[in-house]
Amino acid sequence: MIARLLIRIVALAAMAYLVLPLVVIIGASLTETSYLAFPPQGLTLKWFGVLFDDPSYVSAFITSTLLALAATGVAVLLAVPASLALARYVFAGRAAAASLLMSPLVLPYVVLGAALLQFGTDFGLARSFEALLVGHVVIVMPFVLRSVLPLLTPEQRALEEASMDLGGTPLATFFLVVLPQIRGGIVSGALLAFISSWINVELSIFNTTSALNTIPVKMFNYVQYTIDPTIAAVSAITIVAAALVIILLDLLIGLDMLSERQQP
Amino acid sequence: MIAPRTTLALLLFAPLAFFAAFFLAPMAVVALASFTTDEGGLTFAHYARILLDQYHWDVLWVTFRIALATTALCLLIGFPLAWYLVRIVRWRSWRRACVILIVVPLFTSNIVRSFGWMVLLGRTGLVNQGLMGMGLTERPIRFLGTETGILIGMVYILMPFVVLSVGNALAKIDTALEDASADLGVGPARTFWFVTLPLCLPGAVSGAIMVFALAVSAYVTPALLSGGQITVFSMLIFQQYSSVFDFHYGGALSVTLLVLTLVLVTLAGRVGERGRRAA
């Protein structure tokens, strides 16, 4: 009983620890003072207005969103055929190909970012949208692979073969049979990919400039020198956006992965 | 009818070509630069500069000390939280809300999360106000620019990984095994130690590996919470590529971090694999 109580106390303290910084940021973004205050003094949305009047923030928002969308799109286009190949075929180098495509998950992003800058400098690709894009595609592709691969099961395969036996062309089979079956995995993988691109600093920071900047990198450079309610407002927007995406994911695929499985 | 080989080649060509061009090639360029001089001659001088200099060993030690402490604390706090969510909470909606609250930070940038702690841990921040209000300290404690401050931020950022992977493993355990142990007259503590813990060890190990790998290569959180007082390894790499522009030395630093991370991740994976087989 005492152990149970102790676990309860630690767990609730841990939850408070996880939530506190987010609450503080959202609270601080609403203060009327020109310095950061928590609890906020007075309530105002003026810092959000300041943000949207600043063209550099607006353009960073646009760059981040376009980058995340493009990276997710390219990653899906590459990951879906790759997962079909990895799930369906036995070939020499299959394990190597799989670990190559998954390896960005455990690689230090700082190293990859530095590598892309150096490599890009040799080819005139450095510090451009394209340089950011290829790096982001590399780091987000594993998320799509990881959520599509488990869906390509033998049962799924059987339906695909049935379609082919009935005279369906490979393309028709893919679009009418396979795609609907793996759509859930593509959507959840794409959402994870989008988010990881949207919040990335370590990779982007090498290839951004003051004219071509993403939101997280801009915030990073700003926070090192000044802390004010504007930066709290940007942060608050990203927190609310993340919460919305997660609630969407929860409704879509259900995030309650911690419920004990019912014994049959 | 298209031959299977052709289909396979069609499916794999684009993804592999993309990874070769924008992942393997850049990495190869870095590795190559780390072994060459400006004139293109072969040299090990950049590695010698790292390995023979006490300063680099100090930075490595700080980096690994922070990463190890982060991993240990994440397990220590994350395990009870996972246990609470899986075994103690009976109200589904509350568990669902908790899972969402644990995942939201994961989907928020490191900057935002570290920034939250910059505000909280400042001289007049909420943490110091609280500590002084409770009479635990008379003067504000300095957190920013200390290892404690970095640790608070890193544990905060990485704990959700442990909670999710341990929680997943706990939820999959067939409770009949624990009941059987209890029926055989084994006390709850021994049942936990000999039945439950080994069963969720693989989840804990994979969570810990993830946390450790991310902690060793973390850049943003230490950069923001160290206030320039403490240097971790990734900061050295960043300096070389952003202000010093020594790609040879920077390359050697990158390769060092990469090799160390991969070796440790592989080792930990082996240990986890053995644990899984023993379980």
From TrEMBL, chain A:
UniProt keyword Membrane present: yes
Ranges for domain ABC transmembrane type-1: 61-252
Stored InterPro entries: MetI-like, MetI-like_sf
Membrane topology: Multi-pass membrane protein
Nucleotide-binding as UniProt keyword: no
Alphabetical list of PROSITE patterns matching this protein: ABC_TM1 (PS50928)
Superkingdom, natural source: Bacteria
Residues annotated as transmembrane: 12-38, 58-86, 98-119, 131-152, 173-199, 231-253
Keywords, alphabetical: Cell inner membrane, Cell membrane, Membrane, Transmembrane, Transmembrane helix, Transport
Location in the cell: Cell inner membrane
Descriptive protein name: Spermidine/putrescine transport system permease protein
From TrEMBL, chain B:
Sorted UniProt keywords: Cell membrane, Membrane, Transmembrane, Transmembrane helix, Transport
Transmembrane segments: 59-86, 93-111, 149-171, 191-216, 247-268
One Pfam family it belongs to: BPD_transp_1
Protein name: Spermidine/putrescine transport system permease protein
Keyword Transferase: no
PROSITE patterns in the record: ABC_TM1
Family named by the database record: Belongs to the binding-protein-dependent transport system permease family. CysTW subfamily.
InterPro entries listed in its UniProt record: MetI-like (IPR000515), MetI-like_sf (IPR035906)
Topological relation to the membrane, as annotated: Multi-pass membrane protein
Subcellular location: Cell membrane
CDD domains to which the protein is assigned, alphabetical: TM_PBP2
Residue ranges constituting the ABC transmembrane type-1 domain according to the UniProt record: 60-268
